[in-house]
């Protein structure tokens, strides 16, 4: 792929060797683990799966399957309207919405109805499946997405968090103009808030969740639902619907779920067909339907010679399948053998007999679970001893089955069993206390199993009523100390439940504070910043009181809590409060810290580093320097004494921080060696531990690129920007919530560097991607990301303008200006310079489309604001003065144009570091403009002197950096040609004008949108010089004709900006004729 091209057309040929498997997808990614895709997209099954009436009468549970759609969809009008409104939102891009509710509430039926309606409205409809949910397809995506795509993901809570994020970040979901992903889950309370936070940070829009209320909330609604289902089932079973008896009890809470009502209707119809008694309660209904399953197994065993599995064995097989979920046929046999259900060689016959009763949805698989899920959970619960229902005999084997399966899961082939086995049992335990009681000893014997079950299962385990606190206490030390994408949600819930329980039973302040601080850390990890602040702030208050009586004992916990609270406040955008806490904790560290203690020195350096960040965030740039310098001094001394990895990492962190502070103070030369040293340290650390140090390396490389760019070393800067984007994309794939903001920064830096090298077309997609990310982040955290959106708008506007779309560029700048004005009013120290820069850009872009008086007003305000912050940003004022001089000249205010341009030149000359490439380039630009302004006042000798000095500087810069944009040299040469022509040196003028054209021509060929207008101006100048000097009329005519052809479409699009140029070339053509 060519350098700088984000997308390049290519052909790829793939050959599959015998025995191999090829996975491919167009316009998307494939994430593969252990040789298989982590997930798949499939076409959604829009047609119902027919149920043979004869089979339904033998096995009634078949008609409860949502796919059969035997019971017509009814109700849920409000929920469907909400889903439709979300789907049809004209906002382009990807959006995700969660539908959740308890088992049996009708989630799957609602999702299926929504899918049908979407297909009818010309949306492509797919289903998303995790690798743990095998299906018949072996492709990763079923075809083209179309312009509008809906994807339905069932059991979203069962997906590992990082896999779900990989799925939602697949580029295939960016192909359609609009993509909508509907997640369906039982619960939202424990796992969803953290996931929602991460999705939002991953630039994925998240719609308002739909919490399904009971469809059959009132007795009347339950009666209506019962009658509708009864009518549908009666048609299948061949009985008269008017004979169906309405149950005496439909008013209990257990019948709020529509599935419970449908089960009651099904039992009533089946009992009518077979002359049986209808049970009175929900447990009885489940037992009735499960007994009918037994009847079917017995019938097959008695009358089908090919069916050799006894009902008792098949019951254990169904039990196993409900726990393991669908498995490949070969593994299914080994699972049954491992759990003692059957032995070789008949085990595969058992798998096949089971498949005959419960056909797998995927060919080549077995152990299809009993559906609906709730019926399967009831089947498990009634088979496990301890339920107390005399009508349904338990099986002692069922108590040991989970242990057998979990022991099997220790083998690599069966490692994936832990999640489904424990996930199903945990859900059943929410409704069946004896399942909870049988599960707890298993987990107490090996608490690691609970962690291996994944974050959602861990959270649901902690939420079970009556869960043993001893079990949760045993799990606590096994939770990861650092961030963990999959487990963070579950860890936070476990810690929350344990903490609340312990807080009610302890009066000891030290213990309470420690519990609250630990909970705050967990909440912060899942994006619950307000809750984290509340916990840690309470811990701070307790530690303050304790430290008054025993400062030596409690100062470290207090300092730690203050540090955590400062970070939480900063995350909430309350930087002033974070600063106050940072200053307080540093005062404590200075007072009580031990200068010989490594721990105290590391803590002090870390506190100083964060203090520097908070000061910088508040615009106190000069004040931010001292703490950053002190942090580096402390860590250099510490590394000189004890050079260990932790100390080196802390030093690299502080070197990067100090370098950033110097860069912000316009001291890039001082920042450069510090930044390089920090990057070198991080590179060596990342080689040995990339998981820990790659994020820090990315940030350090990103910041080094900023410094190199500021110094004009654009090739090196571009290398850093590309490396930073590459690392950040890798990090975002694993943890978007943490690293997406960094990716946005790296992308805009890459766009800036590409633009500085004239690669505007290549820069544009990166700038657009950065803006899209930051807009998404801003939705949920405007205080933090609104300034970043404005900065990105400003940078993008420059890219867009340079690619020729000048109207959109002006709109982008105006939007940025609308954000910066209130920010600068509230915090001028931090945002005044950005507002001034936006005004300068607005002035330039207004002039480019001919709005010259608006351009003058913007440029004047920009200079006024830059004067206010000249001390902090000394190199910004001369550039704005230069721009104002150009704007004055464009409206005929020539004397004022000369005056401000002279001030620009003087201000550049007075800069401390005039040898800096950007400053030398700025001086040359201002000198060239001064020459133009003086020529307009007939001060030709002074004009020629200024222009000649400008050309000398431009040539020197080009010698040092051949990649430098040569258009400004071309401009200066054209100005010099005019002065030479005025002095009568016509041959010299022609030579200089030709060079001006030759310098600009390759630029215009490579980037016509930006440089064609400049080429037209150079050609016009060449034609003028040749005509005035009486030289080569054919060349003059050709140059004027070429300029005219360029100006013609430009003048049509932007008449105010280019009509004068067109008139001038018309006049030259007439004179040449």
From TrEMBL:
Keyword Coiled coil annotated: yes
SUPFAM superfamilies reported in the protein's UniProt record? TPR-like (SSF48452)
Q: Spell out the coiled coil positions from the record.
A: 920-947
Q: Does the record carry Coiled coil as a key word?
A: yes
- UniProt keyword list: Coiled coil
Q: Which Pfam families match?
A: TPR_10, TPR_8
Q: Which domain of life is it from?
A: Bacteria
| PANTHER family named among the record's database cross-references | FUNGAL LIPASE-LIKE DOMAIN-CONTAINING PROTEIN (PTHR19959:SF119), KINESIN LIGHT CHAIN (PTHR19959)
The name of this protein is Tetratricopeptide repeat protein
